[in-house]
Amino acid sequence: MTGLIKIKVRFALCFVLLSLSVCEGLAQETVSISVSSNVVLQWPGLSNHVYSVLWTPSLTNEFQVLKARIPQSESEHVDPFHASGSQGFYKLERQPESAFSSDPLVVADRVADRVILKNSNARLYTVFLTFEAMLEMDRVTGLNTYSNYVFQRIGSRGDWDPGDVIKYDSPPFCHLDYKLYQTSGDTNYLPNFIAQSDLYWSNITRSVEGAVLHYDKKRGSGLLLDRLQDYTSRMAQTGMFTGDTNYYAECAEQFHLYRQILRDSGTGLYSQGRGWLTDTNELSPGAWSRGHGWLIRGMVESLLALPDGSAEFVEVQGYLEELADALLAVQAPDDMWHQLIHLPPEESYPDSTGTGLILYNLAVALDEGFLVGAQYYNAAQQAYAALLDYVPPKALSCRPVPAPARSGQWSRTFARRAAPRMAVVTGHFASSLPVPAKCFWMPCHDRLNEYRCTGVNASSTGLERPARSDPL
Predict the structure, then answer these.
(1) Residue 214: other Cβ atoms inside 10 A
(2) What is the 3-state secondary structure (H, E, C) of the chain?
(3) Is the peptide bond before 307 cis (omega within 30 degrees of 0)?
(4) What are the pLDDT tens digits along the chain (472 aa)?
(5) What is the pTM of this model?
(6) Structural domains of the chain, with CATH
(7) What's the rounded Cα separation, in Å, for the pair 356 and 341?
């Protein structure tokens, strides 16, 4: 069931009543819209159905999910983002409640099928992060659901076999060869991994303080949380393989330096970077949820490799707890983390990828004992339930949000209207955490946003996903 309403609001205070009849079999509903300072959509609602409200400024653009899984008991949505001066289209979608599942394995299969259908072979970090997620899901569940697919895709490249030279920065922000080793147990991956880590350490540019920098061929070099998380976790993992404690020290030192430079002592939140504005000594404005997702990922991945109880472990664990407390303080009333977490929640959209990265790493930290406390557990549980709103039965596409480190000064108008980005999800559980505390959410390949799932089975690609027969 889908309906479209077009409305142009010329004044802040006015009232418009439109009716839209929408049929699904014999079920018909009338949708009314009232407009004052906000747009309010109301409909009668059918029992045992849930609703999604979407919006687009033009029918040539993708629809953005404003709110999903609205139960029949509510049958209303207040849109604070598109009122005075706005022009666009609303879409109301209705599905049976049974179409939604909170079972993370079901959710994981639904979204991972979308990745398999796209069958991308692009050498982009977002694709590789998705492959990491698929491998990690199989590793944790003990099922061989996605590993064969990932190894097939990697093998088709011709330059990622064990023993090949896999460059540390190809692509940036992740090192899939580490996850390939974890999954396969093939030690032929390790000599190159270690050699590339040494090159990483010696070749990377650094700030005057000694903090590692990210290099962009168009914009130059600067501090960037995305780069920090990749570098630190790789140093810790290399130390684990070699027994060389200098890698551990380098990992902890980089977290220390970034904390000194980017962290706001009042809020505990981090700037996304430094060096990307006209004044290269100026910090990137604001605080970005996905950037904090990168940061907490780096801390958790590093702790997984640092020796338990070592000085470096204790130091990074302290930074993690400090960061987690700051993030819990800005978790929005809708249980999501919004794009700009230094602003009130209503000033920016919920961020599915930021929330996913934060949720997953909170859950891993709880499972591993890096964090202890009911407040972290409750935040993860609530975020998971909220994040399900962004993975409806048919995967909906939304445009990605630019990173603040590269965008100069934030515009509040931009922040209010920027679309939330969909996340790729793979279920990730441990026996010590009940459903739905632990779920692995990663950013999806940008080009997947151009693809709309139409109910085609993944088997149509010729890469049929094995049926899951063993419940977790």
Answers:
(1) 25
(2) CEEEEEEECCCCCCCCCCCCEEEECCEEEECEEEECCCEEEECCCCCCEEEEEEEECCCCCCCEEEEEEEECCCCEEEECCCCCCCEEEEEEEEEEHHHCCCCHHHHHHHHHHHHHHHCCCCCCHHHHHHHHHHHHHHHHHCCCCCHHHHHHHHHCCCCCCCCCCCCCCCCCCCCHHHHHHHHHCCHHHHHHHHHHHHHHHHHCCECCCCCECEEECCCEEEEEHHHHHHHHHHHHHHHHHHCCHHHHHHHHHHHHHHHHHHECCCCCCECCEECCCCCCCCECCCCEHHHHHHHHHHHHHHHHHCCCCCHHHHHHHHHHHHHHHHHHHCCCCCCCCECECCCCHHHCCECHHHHHHHHHHHHHHHHHCCCCCHHHHHHHHHHHHHHHHHCCCCCCCCCCCCCHHHCCCCCHHHHHHCCCCCEEEEECCCCCCCCCCCEEEEECCHHHHHCCCCCCCHHHHCCCCCCCCCCC
(3) no
(4) 444 444 433 322 222 223 333 334 334 566 666 666 678 888 888 888 888 888 888 888 877 777 777 888 888 888 776 765 667 888 888 878 766 666 777 777 767 777 777 766 667 788 888 888 888 888 877 878 888 888 888 887 777 888 888 899 888 899 999 999 999 999 999 999 999 999 999 999 999 999 999 998 888 999 999 999 999 999 999 999 999 999 999 999 999 999 999 999 999 999 999 999 999 999 999 999 999 999 999 999 999 999 999 999 999 999 999 999 999 999 999 999 999 999 999 888 888 889 989 998 999 999 999 999 999 999 998 998 888 877 655 443 333 344 444 444 433 333 333 322 222 222 222 222 222 222 333 332 222 222 222 222 222 233 333 333 332 2
(5) 0.71
(6) 2-99 (2.60.40), 104-461 (1.50.10.10)
(7) 14
Tokens 């700030």, residue located = 207
